[in-house]
Amino acid sequence: MKKLLYLGFVLCAGVALADETPPIELKHKSSFNFESGDRNPFWPIGWKPAPKMAKNEHAGPAIPPSAFVVSTIVIDPKTRYAIINGRVMGEGQQFGLQIGGTVHQITVKTVEDGHVVLVRGEQEIVVALRRK
User: Fold this and answer.
1) N or C: where does the chain have the smaller number of CB atoms within 10 Å of the terminal CB?
2) What CA–CA distance (Å, rounded) separates 119 from 65?
3) What is the model's pTM?
């Protein structure tokens, strides 16, 4: 019985408040505009979006071999891999190379004794092992 009375009281109080409250009129409607280079304020602080991938792998200038550093080459009867730009990469693996705001997809074609052959679209890039 107490619950029923309590619910009745809440409903009566809500109806009474609705009758006393005047309708809300908007004077200024908020809007949000930002330029294409601005940081989106709804992103978490410190977060940056991933760079955009190059849409056409053939577009743009050729990537020079100096964009890569091959520091180690390991040739084993079972596998071949190289350390390219600080990452261990095997034959057939793909990785992204960021140049400016664009990431280019690079594939490790072959790992040979003394050099690595990389592929980007139709371009083959031969990068020699860096010796001290």
Assistant:
1) C
2) 11
3) 0.56
